[in-house]
Amino acid sequence: MPKQDSGGYTASGEVPQAPPVQVAGERQLRAEVDGLIRHLNADVEWTRRIEALLRLEGLVRGGAAAVPGFLELLKTLQDPIVVQLLDRCERMPAHASYEIHWNLRHYSG
Q: Could you give the CA distance from residue 59 to residue 53 in angstroms, rounded to a whole number?
């Protein structure tokens, strides 16, 4: 894995690729999403919020989109992700935008 700065970006300024995160079913996916919601709060340090966004990408990479109830759980992340887009820290909106783009491209295709 390329060397990362404190914001989770590689030394070349790229967003690191999230490793796949597999879940065994809807119960485990719900627990993962609940954890993401807790970490995607404006009061949480921005590096932790980037980790949460990468975890979301990892869930999709790991096949979570095939788990029953995925779309409903994804909807619960709408407000927390909007918080990231509204954050004044430069890296959070950029990373949140990247995650939205990545998830739309991979989930819809």
A: 10
